Amino acid sequence: MAMPGSDTDTDLLAAVRAGNADAYGTLYQRHSAATKQLAHTLAPNPADADDLVAETFTNVFAALRAGRGPLVAFRAYLHTTLRHVCYHRARRDRRLEFTDDLTRYDPGEPFLDPALDRLERTFAARAFSQLPARWRDVLWHTEVEGASPAEVAPLLGLTPNAVAVLAHRAREGLRQRYLQQHVAIAEQPECRWTGDRLGGHVRGRLATRDTARLRAHLRWCGGCRGRLAEIADLDVIRHRPYRQRHHAEPAG
């Protein structure tokens, strides 16, 4: 007979799906410390970080009891869920403000939510790291260093026109992968296949056959339609910040 806590995560996940709540308690004990550490990097306020952890574990537990969620790699799924909880909280919270002073909504200086900005940087960095090396090189030279295609051409052994074309493809690839960072991990194979292509679909870059298959899936899958709506909104809005007016200090 296995000793308490000696079961693998896969065994415990199966037990949770079968209705064993104690198994989820064991998973919590194993992974809560690492999850709290990640939460504190996303939300430095201890209370906010604790709320993120609680909501994350609650959401994953509900998914498992509903027959969804991970079969393996529990910690990876848990941490991805936490990032999405943080992201959606930040988007929701910045839309809500109780005030009778409407002058702050006049054009002024941009206001950026630090937690959202930090999470977006994480998503952007991960998307960049997934690009082919050639695309990373051309983006670094043109977007970061601000070099022109003519200046980059000899570095990459290309003509200036070829550099411009490569940079365009690289920027589009980065946009697609950035959007993909916002797609929650799906459990069912067809949902996972669809989720992996939602960024390309939003950007209009899927092959005709893949588009037909994806649309057929979306007709009956509400979960994937929800994920598509989230990143489609993201692609349009691009997280435009609130703009706040700086009020002049009264004369002394």
Automatic annotation (TrEMBL):
<dbReference type="Pfam" id="PF13490">
    <property type="entry name" value="zf-HC2"/>
</dbReference>
<dbReference type="GO" id="GO:0006352">
    <property type="term" value="P:DNA-templated transcription initiation"/>
</dbReference>
<dbReference type="GO" id="GO:0016987">
    <property type="term" value="F:sigma factor activity"/>
</dbReference>
<dbReference type="GO" id="GO:0003677">
    <property type="term" value="F:DNA binding"/>
</dbReference>
<protein>
    <submittedName>
        <fullName>RNA polymerase sigma factor (Sigma-70 family)</fullName>
    </submittedName>
</protein>
<dbReference type="InterPro" id="IPR014284">
    <property type="entry name" value="RNA_pol_sigma-70_dom"/>
</dbReference>
<dbReference type="InterPro" id="IPR027383">
    <property type="entry name" value="Znf_put"/>
</dbReference>
<keyword id="KW-0731">Sigma factor</keyword>
<dbReference type="InterPro" id="IPR036388">
    <property type="entry name" value="WH-like_DNA-bd_sf"/>
</dbReference>
<keyword id="KW-0805">Transcription regulation</keyword>
<feature type="domain" description="Putative zinc-finger">
    <location>
        <begin position="191"/>
        <end position="225"/>
    </location>
</feature>
<feature type="domain" description="RNA polymerase sigma-70 region 2">
    <location>
        <begin position="27"/>
        <end position="95"/>
    </location>
</feature>
<dbReference type="InterPro" id="IPR013249">
    <property type="entry name" value="RNA_pol_sigma70_r4_t2"/>
</dbReference>
<dbReference type="Pfam" id="PF04542">
    <property type="entry name" value="Sigma70_r2"/>
</dbReference>
<dbReference type="InterPro" id="IPR013325">
    <property type="entry name" value="RNA_pol_sigma_r2"/>
</dbReference>
<comment type="similarity">
    <text>Belongs to the sigma-70 factor family. ECF subfamily.</text>
</comment>
<dbReference type="Pfam" id="PF08281">
    <property type="entry name" value="Sigma70_r4_2"/>
</dbReference>
<dbReference type="InterPro" id="IPR007627">
    <property type="entry name" value="RNA_pol_sigma70_r2"/>
</dbReference>
<dbReference type="InterPro" id="IPR013324">
    <property type="entry name" value="RNA_pol_sigma_r3/r4-like"/>
</dbReference>
<feature type="domain" description="RNA polymerase sigma factor 70 region 4 type 2">
    <location>
        <begin position="126"/>
        <end position="172"/>
    </location>
</feature>
<keyword id="KW-0238">DNA-binding</keyword>
<keyword id="KW-0804">Transcription</keyword>
<dbReference type="InterPro" id="IPR039425">
    <property type="entry name" value="RNA_pol_sigma-70-like"/>
</dbReference>
